[in-house]
Design a protein that fits this description.
Layout lengths: L7 H4 L14 E5 L4 H12 L3 E6 L2 H14 L4 E6 L5 H15 L4 E4 L17 H29 L2 E6 L9 H21 L4 E8 L5 H6 L2 H9 L9 H11 L11 E4 L8
Parallel strand pairs: 1-2, 1-4, 2-3, 4-5, 5-6, 6-7
């Protein structure tokens, strides 16, 4: 990993890169040890952002940061073990970002529990499972936002991007309920934080080809997902990153409170 103190540009100057650039922004990505979160972190690093990878699995998130540092030239990355449901740990996450890079520009609330595309009836959901999903998928984004909003307010600039799901609009059990709640939280936070120069949006992916999908959805289910899209293919991390990256830029400054579907036309079938 590189030494952030060797690059004073992270510590000084304007809080946001101009126009459509994410170079020199400081980005926190939660749920970054694997899967899409790790992909987002790598892509931001490749575009010149300083990235803090946060995840419950401390050893894996450290390994992910080391892999990005080895793979991306001049990558500026740090890793922090974080339980997003614990306010003390989310505050420590924000403090680690400030210690490493001097400020916080962008928060990607990606950490989540997924696995209910073929759920048991919601009426049969156990209270413990309900509480777990709501804690990670809804409480977590709130606590992470609360942890970073102070530095963003001081800077007068910030971007908070919540990773929702098209499952919010489908019968997807407690997972779908949590993501629909996240969409409403996005709107509420956008209204409250807009006067401080902070935008809050959500990205709602459709069917994505990644490790989680391949291990949890049978081939017949994957084909059903593909059939449900307008473009007749699964999405990729790159498809999602285009929207996430845009929302992190100066150019997206008048977009807030929105839940933006990135789903290959899947929503047209709902």
């Amino acid at each position: 990993m590189t030494d952030p103190s060797a690059d004073p540009g992270i510590e000084e100057g304007l809080p946001g890169a101009p126009g459509g650039s994410v170079a020199d922004r400081v980005v926190i990505v939660t749920g970054a040890a694997r899967g899409l979160g790790r992909d987002y972190a790598r892509m931001f690093a490749a575009e010149g952002a300083a990235v803090v990878l946060a995840d419950l699995d401390g050893s894996s998130v450290t390994g992910a940061a080391e892999a990005i540092s080895a793979d991306v030239a001049d990558a500026r990355v740090a890793a922090v073990a974080t339980d997003v449901t614990d306010p003390a740990q989310t505050e420590a996450m924000a403090a680690a970002a400030l210690e490493s890079f001097g400020r916080i520009d962008v928060l990607i609330n990606n950490a989540g529990i997924w696995g209910d595309l073929e759920p048991a009836p919601a009426v049969d959901t156990s209270p413990d499972y309900w509480d777990l999903v709501m804690a990670v998928n809804l409480r977590g984004p709130l606590l992470c936002t609360q942890a970073v909003v102070g530095p963003m307010r001081e800077a007068g600039w910030g971007r908070i991007i919540n990773i929702s799901s098209m499952g919010a609009y489908m019968p997807a059990g407690v997972y779908g309920v949590s993501k629909l709640g996240l969409n409403q939280l996005t709107f509420a936070l956008a209204t409250e934080l807009g006067p401080s120069g902070i935008t809050v949006n959500a990205v709602a992916p459709g069917p994505i080809d990644n490790e989680a999908t391949r291990t949890q959805v049978p081939p017949k289910g994957i084909q059903k997902m593909i059939d449900g899209t307008a473009v007749k293919r699964m999405g990729t991390a790159t498809d999602l990153f285009g929207m996430i990256r845009f929302l992190a830029t100066e150019e997206a400054g008048w977009i807030t409170g929105q839940t933006l579907g990135v789903n290959g036309g899947f929503s047209s079938r709902l």
